[in-house]
Structure to design on (468 residues):
Protein backbone atom coordinates (compact mmCIF):
# COMPACT_ATOMS: atom_id res chain seq x y z
CA UNK A 1 0.00 0.00 0.00
CA UNK A 2 1.19 3.45 -0.88
CA UNK A 3 -0.49 5.31 1.96
CA UNK A 4 -0.58 2.82 4.82
CA UNK A 5 2.11 0.77 6.55
CA UNK A 6 0.80 -1.74 9.09
CA UNK A 7 3.19 -2.11 12.02
CA UNK A 8 0.99 -4.35 14.20
CA UNK A 9 -1.33 -7.09 12.99
CA UNK A 10 -4.59 -7.74 14.85
CA UNK A 11 -3.86 -9.25 18.26
CA UNK A 12 -7.31 -9.26 19.84
CA UNK A 13 -8.97 -12.11 18.01
CA UNK A 14 -7.84 -14.82 20.37
CA UNK A 15 -7.59 -17.13 29.88
CA UNK A 16 -5.25 -19.78 31.24
CA UNK A 17 -3.93 -17.52 34.02
CA UNK A 18 -0.31 -18.57 33.67
CA UNK A 19 0.85 -15.05 32.85
CA UNK A 20 2.36 -12.71 35.42
CA UNK A 21 0.47 -10.24 37.56
CA UNK A 22 0.01 -7.02 35.60
CA UNK B 1 -13.37 2.61 17.18
CA UNK B 2 -10.05 4.06 16.08
CA UNK B 3 -7.55 6.39 17.73
CA UNK B 4 -5.28 8.54 15.61
CA UNK B 5 -2.51 10.88 16.62
CA UNK B 6 0.70 12.41 15.36
CA UNK B 7 3.98 11.31 16.89
CA UNK B 8 6.90 13.42 15.70
CA UNK B 9 6.68 13.25 11.89
CA UNK B 10 4.46 10.16 11.75
CA UNK B 11 0.69 9.76 11.59
CA UNK B 12 -0.38 6.76 13.66
CA UNK B 13 -3.76 5.01 13.64
CA UNK B 14 -4.78 2.40 16.21
CA UNK B 15 -7.68 0.08 15.43
CA UNK B 16 -8.85 -0.32 19.00
CA UNK B 17 -10.87 -3.52 18.76
CA UNK B 18 -8.49 -5.55 16.61
CA UNK B 19 -5.18 -4.28 17.99
CA UNK B 20 -3.90 -3.45 14.49
CA UNK B 21 -1.71 -0.34 14.26
CA UNK B 22 -0.84 1.58 11.10
CA UNK B 23 1.46 4.39 10.06
CA UNK B 24 -0.48 6.38 7.48
CA UNK B 25 0.03 9.25 5.08
CA UNK B 26 -1.38 12.68 5.84
CA UNK B 27 -4.17 12.19 3.30
CA UNK B 28 -5.37 8.98 4.99
CA UNK B 29 -5.06 10.69 8.37
CA UNK B 30 -7.36 13.47 7.16
CA UNK B 31 -9.84 11.17 5.40
CA UNK B 32 -10.40 9.23 8.62
CA UNK B 33 -12.13 12.31 10.08
CA UNK B 34 -14.82 11.98 7.41
CA UNK B 35 -14.82 8.25 6.81
CA UNK B 36 -18.41 7.69 7.94
CA UNK B 37 -19.60 9.94 5.09
CA UNK B 38 -20.00 8.85 1.46
CA UNK B 39 -17.21 9.17 -1.09
CA UNK B 40 -18.54 12.33 -2.71
CA UNK B 41 -18.75 14.07 0.65
CA UNK B 42 -15.20 13.02 1.53
CA UNK B 43 -13.86 14.32 -1.78
CA UNK B 44 -15.78 17.57 -1.34
CA UNK B 45 -14.43 18.05 2.18
CA UNK B 46 -10.80 17.50 1.18
CA UNK B 47 -10.59 18.69 -2.44
CA UNK B 48 -9.14 22.02 -1.29
CA UNK B 49 -6.08 20.14 -0.05
CA UNK B 50 -5.66 17.01 -2.21
CA UNK B 51 -6.25 15.84 -5.79
CA UNK B 52 -9.40 13.79 -6.22
CA UNK B 53 -7.44 10.84 -7.64
CA UNK B 54 -5.22 10.73 -4.57
CA UNK B 55 -8.22 10.92 -2.25
CA UNK B 56 -9.91 8.02 -4.02
CA UNK B 57 -6.71 5.96 -4.01
CA UNK B 58 -6.32 6.49 -0.25
CA UNK B 59 -9.98 5.64 0.26
CA UNK B 60 -9.49 2.34 -1.55
CA UNK B 61 -6.63 1.47 0.79
CA UNK B 62 -8.72 2.33 3.83
CA UNK B 63 -11.60 0.20 2.61
CA UNK B 64 -9.28 -2.73 1.99
CA UNK B 65 -8.18 -2.60 5.62
CA UNK B 66 -11.78 -2.33 6.82
CA UNK B 67 -12.61 -5.50 4.88
CA UNK B 68 -9.65 -7.26 6.48
CA UNK B 69 -10.93 -6.20 9.93
CA UNK B 70 -7.90 -4.04 10.61
CA UNK B 71 -9.71 -0.70 10.74
CA UNK B 72 -13.05 0.30 12.30
CA UNK B 73 -13.34 -3.25 13.60
CA UNK B 74 -16.31 -4.09 15.78
CA UNK B 75 -15.59 -5.20 19.33
CA UNK B 76 -15.79 -8.99 19.52
CA UNK B 77 -16.70 -8.41 23.13
CA UNK B 78 -15.71 -10.99 25.68
CA UNK B 79 -18.93 -12.18 27.26
CA UNK B 80 -19.16 -11.38 30.93
CA UNK B 81 -20.14 -14.98 31.62
CA UNK B 82 -16.67 -16.10 30.53
CA UNK B 83 -15.18 -14.01 33.31
CA UNK B 84 -17.78 -15.12 35.82
CA UNK B 85 -17.24 -18.80 35.01
CA UNK B 86 -13.53 -18.62 35.74
CA UNK B 87 -12.27 -20.71 38.61
CA UNK B 88 -11.84 -18.68 41.80
CA UNK B 89 -8.18 -19.49 42.30
CA UNK B 90 -5.30 -17.49 43.72
CA UNK B 91 -2.01 -17.41 41.87
CA UNK B 92 -0.19 -14.38 43.22
CA UNK B 93 0.49 -13.16 46.74
CA UNK B 94 2.01 -9.96 47.99
CA UNK B 95 3.52 -11.13 51.27
CA UNK B 96 4.07 -8.29 53.72
CA UNK B 97 7.07 -9.55 55.66
CA UNK B 98 7.49 -6.26 57.52
CA UNK B 99 5.00 -3.65 58.57
CA UNK B 100 7.88 -1.48 59.58
CA UNK B 101 10.46 0.57 57.73
CA UNK B 102 13.87 2.11 58.23
CA UNK B 103 12.94 5.02 55.99
CA UNK B 104 10.33 7.73 56.14
CA UNK B 105 9.40 8.64 52.58
CA UNK B 106 6.99 11.55 52.32
CA UNK B 107 4.72 9.93 49.73
CA UNK B 108 4.55 6.43 51.27
CA UNK B 109 1.08 4.92 50.75
CA UNK B 110 1.89 2.42 53.52
CA UNK B 111 2.02 4.96 56.35
CA UNK B 112 5.85 4.63 56.38
CA UNK B 113 5.45 0.89 56.74
CA UNK B 114 2.79 0.60 59.44
CA UNK B 115 -0.24 0.54 57.10
CA UNK B 116 -2.39 2.36 59.67
CA UNK B 117 -1.72 -0.37 62.26
CA UNK B 118 0.91 -1.66 64.67
CA UNK B 119 4.49 -1.99 63.46
CA UNK B 120 5.24 -5.69 63.19
CA UNK B 121 7.24 -8.37 61.39
CA UNK B 122 5.92 -11.53 59.76
CA UNK B 123 6.75 -14.64 61.77
CA UNK B 124 8.19 -17.70 60.05
CA UNK B 125 5.17 -19.73 61.15
CA UNK B 126 2.66 -17.27 59.65
CA UNK B 127 4.78 -16.99 56.50
CA UNK B 128 4.73 -20.76 56.01
CA UNK B 129 0.96 -20.78 56.48
CA UNK B 130 0.69 -18.06 53.83
CA UNK B 131 2.67 -20.16 51.35
CA UNK B 132 0.55 -23.21 52.17
CA UNK B 133 -2.55 -21.06 51.66
CA UNK B 134 -1.37 -20.01 48.20
CA UNK B 135 -0.48 -23.55 47.16
CA UNK B 136 -3.80 -24.96 48.39
CA UNK B 137 -5.90 -22.23 46.78
CA UNK B 138 -4.13 -22.11 43.42
CA UNK B 139 -6.31 -24.70 41.69
CA UNK B 140 -4.87 -25.74 38.34
CA UNK B 141 -2.52 -22.76 38.06
CA UNK B 142 1.06 -23.94 37.77
CA UNK B 143 2.96 -20.65 37.82
CA UNK B 144 2.55 -18.82 41.12
CA UNK B 145 4.08 -15.61 42.43
CA UNK B 146 5.16 -14.46 45.86
CA UNK B 147 6.36 -10.88 46.19
CA UNK B 148 8.16 -10.04 49.42
CA UNK B 149 6.94 -6.59 50.29
CA UNK B 150 6.61 -4.15 53.16
CA UNK B 151 7.42 -1.83 54.76
CA UNK B 152 10.99 -2.86 54.18
CA UNK B 153 11.41 -6.62 53.66
CA UNK B 154 15.13 -6.57 54.45
CA UNK B 155 14.24 -5.79 58.08
CA UNK B 156 13.04 -9.41 58.24
CA UNK B 157 15.45 -11.04 55.82
CA UNK B 158 16.13 -14.20 57.83
CA UNK B 159 12.43 -15.01 57.54
CA UNK B 160 12.51 -14.21 53.81
CA UNK B 161 15.36 -16.69 53.32
CA UNK B 162 13.61 -19.42 55.28
CA UNK B 163 10.35 -18.84 53.42
CA UNK B 164 12.08 -19.12 50.06
CA UNK B 165 13.62 -22.43 51.14
CA UNK B 166 10.23 -23.60 52.39
CA UNK B 167 8.46 -22.49 49.21
CA UNK B 168 11.03 -24.06 46.91
CA UNK B 169 10.48 -27.40 48.62
CA UNK B 170 6.70 -27.12 48.99
CA UNK B 171 6.18 -26.23 45.33
CA UNK B 172 7.53 -29.63 44.33
CA UNK B 173 4.94 -31.39 46.49
CA UNK B 174 2.21 -29.52 44.64
CA UNK B 175 3.76 -29.60 41.15
CA UNK B 176 3.93 -25.80 41.06
CA UNK B 177 6.50 -23.19 40.11
CA UNK B 178 6.73 -20.25 42.51
CA UNK B 179 8.40 -17.09 41.21
CA UNK B 180 9.79 -15.06 44.09
CA UNK B 181 10.28 -11.31 43.80
CA UNK B 182 11.26 -8.61 46.29
CA UNK B 183 11.02 -4.84 46.62
CA UNK B 184 13.57 -3.00 48.75
CA UNK B 185 14.65 0.51 49.70
CA UNK B 186 18.27 -0.66 49.57
CA UNK B 187 19.54 0.60 52.92
CA UNK B 188 20.31 -2.87 54.30
CA UNK B 189 21.62 -4.45 51.10
CA UNK B 190 24.98 -6.13 51.63
CA UNK B 191 26.97 -8.78 49.76
CA UNK B 192 25.24 -11.66 51.53
CA UNK B 193 21.72 -10.38 50.83
CA UNK B 194 22.63 -9.52 47.24
CA UNK B 195 23.94 -13.04 46.68
CA UNK B 196 20.72 -14.54 48.01
CA UNK B 197 18.43 -12.16 46.08
CA UNK B 198 20.30 -12.69 42.83
CA UNK B 199 20.14 -16.46 43.29
CA UNK B 200 16.48 -16.80 44.24
CA UNK B 201 14.44 -13.80 43.06
CA UNK B 202 13.25 -13.70 39.44
CA UNK B 203 12.77 -9.97 39.73
CA UNK B 204 13.93 -7.33 42.16
CA UNK B 205 12.65 -3.78 42.53
CA UNK B 206 15.10 -1.20 43.82
CA UNK B 207 13.47 2.01 45.01
CA UNK B 208 15.23 5.26 44.07
CA UNK B 209 13.72 8.42 42.62
CA UNK B 210 16.48 9.64 40.32
CA UNK B 211 18.79 12.61 40.79
CA UNK B 212 20.24 12.93 44.32
CA UNK B 213 18.37 16.12 45.22
CA UNK B 214 15.07 14.68 43.95
CA UNK B 215 15.53 11.38 45.78
CA UNK B 216 16.69 13.01 49.00
CA UNK B 217 13.77 15.43 49.07
CA UNK B 218 11.27 12.57 49.36
CA UNK B 219 13.15 9.44 50.43
CA UNK B 220 14.67 10.06 53.85
CA UNK B 221 15.92 7.98 56.74
CA UNK B 222 13.85 7.98 59.92
CA UNK B 223 16.25 10.70 61.12
CA UNK B 224 15.40 12.89 58.15
CA UNK B 225 18.61 12.39 56.19
CA UNK B 226 18.77 11.88 52.44
CA UNK B 227 19.38 8.32 51.24
CA UNK B 228 20.83 8.60 47.73
CA UNK B 229 24.47 8.14 48.72
CA UNK B 230 23.55 5.23 50.98
CA UNK B 231 21.55 3.25 48.44
CA UNK B 232 23.02 4.01 45.01
CA UNK B 233 26.26 2.13 45.65
CA UNK B 234 24.30 -0.85 47.01
CA UNK B 235 22.14 -0.98 43.90
CA UNK B 236 25.15 -0.79 41.60
CA UNK B 237 26.69 -3.67 43.55
CA UNK B 238 23.53 -5.75 43.11
CA UNK B 239 22.96 -4.92 39.45
CA UNK B 240 26.57 -5.58 38.45
CA UNK B 241 26.32 -9.08 39.92
CA UNK B 242 22.83 -9.81 38.59
CA UNK B 243 21.90 -11.87 35.55
CA UNK B 244 18.11 -11.74 36.00
CA UNK B 245 15.65 -8.91 35.55
CA UNK B 246 15.42 -5.91 37.85
CA UNK B 247 14.01 -2.41 37.88
CA UNK B 248 15.17 0.69 39.63
CA UNK B 249 11.83 2.25 40.44
CA UNK B 250 11.19 5.88 41.28
CA UNK B 251 8.23 8.13 41.88
CA UNK B 252 7.86 11.58 40.37
CA UNK B 253 5.85 14.29 42.07
CA UNK B 254 4.92 17.90 41.43
CA UNK B 255 8.42 18.74 42.68
CA UNK B 256 10.10 17.11 39.68
CA UNK B 257 7.89 17.44 36.64
CA UNK B 258 11.17 17.33 34.68
CA UNK B 259 11.32 13.62 35.51
CA UNK B 260 12.93 12.65 32.20
CA UNK B 261 16.07 14.08 33.79
CA UNK B 262 15.69 11.53 36.58
CA UNK B 263 15.36 8.69 34.08
CA UNK B 264 18.44 10.02 32.28
CA UNK B 265 20.34 10.25 35.55
CA UNK B 266 19.53 6.65 36.45
CA UNK B 267 20.51 5.38 33.00
CA UNK B 268 23.72 7.44 32.98
CA UNK B 269 24.59 6.15 36.43
CA UNK B 270 24.53 2.43 35.91
CA UNK B 271 20.98 1.18 35.36
CA UNK B 272 19.44 -0.27 32.21
CA UNK B 273 15.94 -1.07 33.51
CA UNK B 274 14.17 1.98 34.85
CA UNK B 275 10.69 2.90 35.97
CA UNK B 276 9.76 6.39 37.14
CA UNK B 277 6.06 6.59 37.90
CA UNK B 278 3.61 9.34 38.89
CA UNK B 279 2.77 9.77 42.55
CA UNK B 280 -0.81 8.94 43.51
CA UNK B 281 -1.69 10.66 46.75
CA UNK B 282 -4.08 12.94 48.59
CA UNK B 283 -4.67 15.90 46.23
CA UNK B 284 -4.25 18.33 49.13
CA UNK B 285 -0.53 17.55 49.48
CA UNK B 286 1.80 20.11 47.94
CA UNK B 287 3.65 17.43 45.95
CA UNK B 288 0.45 15.88 44.52
CA UNK B 289 0.00 16.03 40.75
CA UNK B 290 -2.82 18.27 39.54
CA UNK B 291 -4.85 18.43 36.35
CA UNK B 292 -3.17 21.72 35.49
CA UNK B 293 0.17 19.84 35.39
CA UNK B 294 -0.92 17.53 32.58
CA UNK B 295 0.42 19.62 29.69
CA UNK B 296 3.81 19.78 31.38
CA UNK B 297 3.74 16.05 32.10
CA UNK B 298 2.76 15.25 28.50
CA UNK B 299 5.66 17.32 27.16
CA UNK B 300 7.96 15.54 29.59
CA UNK B 301 6.89 12.11 28.34
CA UNK B 302 7.64 13.36 24.82
CA UNK B 303 11.11 14.46 25.99
CA UNK B 304 11.54 11.02 27.52
CA UNK B 305 10.57 9.39 24.21
CA UNK B 306 13.21 11.58 22.51
CA UNK B 307 15.76 10.46 25.08
CA UNK B 308 14.79 6.82 24.56
CA UNK B 309 15.20 7.08 20.79
CA UNK B 310 18.46 9.04 21.05
CA UNK B 311 19.95 6.46 23.39
CA UNK B 312 18.62 3.57 21.31
CA UNK B 313 20.15 4.97 18.15
CA UNK B 314 23.50 5.59 19.82
CA UNK B 315 23.80 2.06 21.20
CA UNK B 316 22.87 2.97 24.78
CA UNK B 317 19.47 1.29 24.77
CA UNK B 318 17.60 1.13 28.06
CA UNK B 319 14.29 -0.23 29.23
CA UNK B 320 11.62 2.17 30.49
CA UNK B 321 8.82 0.20 32.14
CA UNK B 322 5.91 2.33 30.95
CA UNK B 323 7.16 2.37 27.36
CA UNK B 324 7.10 -1.43 27.16
CA UNK B 325 4.29 -2.59 24.92
CA UNK B 326 4.15 -5.83 22.99
CA UNK B 327 2.63 -5.15 19.57
CA UNK B 328 3.28 -8.64 18.22
CA UNK B 329 0.82 -10.27 20.61
CA UNK B 330 0.72 -9.13 24.23
CA UNK B 331 -1.60 -10.71 26.78
CA UNK B 332 -4.72 -12.56 25.63
CA UNK B 333 -8.04 -10.74 25.49
CA UNK B 334 -9.35 -12.31 28.69
CA UNK B 335 -6.33 -10.99 30.54
CA UNK B 336 -6.66 -7.54 28.97
CA UNK B 337 -10.32 -7.33 29.92
CA UNK B 338 -9.93 -8.56 33.47
CA UNK B 339 -6.82 -6.57 34.38
CA UNK B 340 -4.47 -7.02 37.31
CA UNK B 341 -6.36 -9.74 39.16
CA UNK B 342 -6.54 -7.88 42.48
CA UNK B 343 -9.22 -9.39 44.68
CA UNK B 344 -9.67 -12.38 42.39
CA UNK B 345 -6.38 -14.14 41.69
CA UNK B 346 -4.05 -11.74 43.50
CA UNK B 347 -4.08 -11.04 47.24
CA UNK B 348 -1.95 -9.36 49.88
CA UNK B 349 -1.21 -10.97 53.25
CA UNK B 350 -0.17 -8.94 56.30
CA UNK B 351 2.22 -9.98 59.10
CA UNK B 352 -0.71 -11.17 61.20
CA UNK B 353 -2.15 -13.20 58.32
CA UNK B 354 -4.97 -10.89 57.29
CA UNK B 355 -5.93 -11.08 53.61
CA UNK B 356 -6.66 -8.06 51.39
CA UNK B 357 -7.39 -7.72 47.65
CA UNK B 358 -3.99 -6.12 47.04
CA UNK B 359 -1.20 -4.22 48.76
CA UNK B 360 -2.95 -0.90 48.12
CA UNK B 361 -5.99 -1.95 50.17
CA UNK B 362 -4.05 -3.20 53.20
CA UNK B 363 -5.22 -1.52 56.40
CA UNK B 364 -8.70 -0.71 55.09
CA UNK B 365 -10.98 -2.98 57.11
CA UNK B 366 -13.76 -2.61 54.53
CA UNK B 367 -11.64 -4.70 52.19
CA UNK B 368 -10.37 -7.30 54.63
CA UNK B 369 -11.20 -10.70 53.13
CA UNK B 370 -10.29 -12.98 56.02
CA UNK B 371 -7.20 -14.53 57.57
CA UNK B 372 -4.98 -17.35 56.40
CA UNK B 373 -5.72 -19.12 59.71
CA UNK B 374 -9.41 -19.38 58.82
CA UNK B 375 -10.55 -22.94 58.15
CA UNK B 376 -12.29 -21.88 54.95
CA UNK B 377 -11.45 -18.92 52.73
CA UNK B 378 -14.60 -17.31 51.40
CA UNK B 379 -13.65 -14.31 49.27
CA UNK B 380 -16.82 -12.26 49.77
CA UNK B 381 -15.54 -9.58 47.36
CA UNK B 382 -14.61 -11.97 44.54
CA UNK B 383 -17.71 -11.07 42.53
CA UNK B 384 -17.22 -7.35 43.09
CA UNK B 385 -13.65 -7.41 41.79
CA UNK B 386 -14.42 -9.90 39.02
CA UNK B 387 -17.16 -7.64 37.69
CA UNK B 388 -14.92 -4.56 37.82
CA UNK B 389 -13.46 -4.49 34.34
CA UNK B 390 -13.32 -2.47 31.13
CA UNK B 391 -16.86 -3.50 30.17
CA UNK B 392 -18.38 -2.41 33.47
CA UNK B 393 -16.66 0.99 33.68
CA UNK B 394 -18.47 3.58 31.58
CA UNK B 395 -15.33 5.65 31.03
CA UNK B 396 -13.38 2.61 29.88
CA UNK B 397 -16.02 1.41 27.41
CA UNK B 398 -15.47 4.47 25.23
CA UNK B 399 -11.69 4.72 25.74
CA UNK B 400 -9.23 3.79 22.99
CA UNK B 401 -6.63 2.58 25.51
CA UNK B 402 -8.79 0.02 27.31
CA UNK B 403 -7.12 -3.07 25.86
CA UNK B 404 -3.68 -1.78 26.85
CA UNK B 405 -4.36 -0.48 30.36
CA UNK B 406 -7.08 -3.02 31.28
CA UNK B 407 -9.08 -0.45 33.19
CA UNK B 408 -6.40 0.92 35.45
CA UNK B 409 -5.87 0.46 39.17
CA UNK B 410 -8.89 -0.48 41.30
CA UNK B 411 -7.27 1.00 44.39
CA UNK B 412 -6.56 4.34 42.73
CA UNK B 413 -10.18 4.50 41.55
CA UNK B 414 -11.44 3.71 45.03
CA UNK B 415 -9.10 6.08 46.85
CA UNK B 416 -9.71 8.98 44.47
CA UNK B 417 -13.40 8.51 43.64
CA UNK B 418 -14.63 6.18 46.39
CA UNK B 419 -15.84 3.92 43.59
CA UNK B 420 -13.84 1.22 41.81
CA UNK B 421 -15.98 1.71 38.71
CA UNK B 422 -14.86 5.32 38.22
CA UNK B 423 -11.24 5.39 37.02
CA UNK B 424 -8.74 7.90 38.41
CA UNK B 425 -8.86 10.50 35.65
CA UNK B 426 -5.37 11.94 36.05
CA UNK B 427 -3.93 8.43 35.91
CA UNK B 428 -5.92 7.67 32.75
CA UNK B 429 -4.65 10.77 30.97
CA UNK B 430 -1.03 9.97 31.81
CA UNK B 431 -1.47 6.32 30.82
CA UNK B 432 -2.85 7.33 27.41
CA UNK B 433 0.05 9.69 26.82
CA UNK B 434 2.56 6.99 27.77
CA UNK B 435 0.89 4.56 25.38
CA UNK B 436 1.01 7.07 22.55
CA UNK B 437 4.72 7.52 23.20
CA UNK B 438 5.35 3.77 23.55
CA UNK B 439 3.57 2.95 20.30
CA UNK B 440 5.17 5.98 18.63
CA UNK B 441 8.61 4.72 19.60
CA UNK B 442 7.85 1.34 18.05
CA UNK B 443 6.60 3.10 14.92
CA UNK B 444 9.85 5.06 14.68
CA UNK B 445 11.86 1.88 15.12
CA UNK B 446 9.77 -0.16 12.65
Amino acid sequence: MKNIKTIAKPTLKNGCGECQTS
Amino acid sequence: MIHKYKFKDQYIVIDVNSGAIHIVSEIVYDILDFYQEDRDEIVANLSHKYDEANILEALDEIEALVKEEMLFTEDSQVSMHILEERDAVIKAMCLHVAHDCNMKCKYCFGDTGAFEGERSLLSLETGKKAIDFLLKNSGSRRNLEIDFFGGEPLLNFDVVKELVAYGEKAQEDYGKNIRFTITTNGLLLDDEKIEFINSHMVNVILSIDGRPHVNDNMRKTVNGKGTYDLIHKNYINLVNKRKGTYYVRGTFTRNNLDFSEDVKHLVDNGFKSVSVEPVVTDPSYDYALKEEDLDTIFKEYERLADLYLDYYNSGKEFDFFHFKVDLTQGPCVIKRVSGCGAGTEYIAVTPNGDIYPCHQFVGNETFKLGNIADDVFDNRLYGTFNRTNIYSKEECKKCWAKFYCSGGCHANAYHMNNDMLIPYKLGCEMEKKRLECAIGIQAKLS
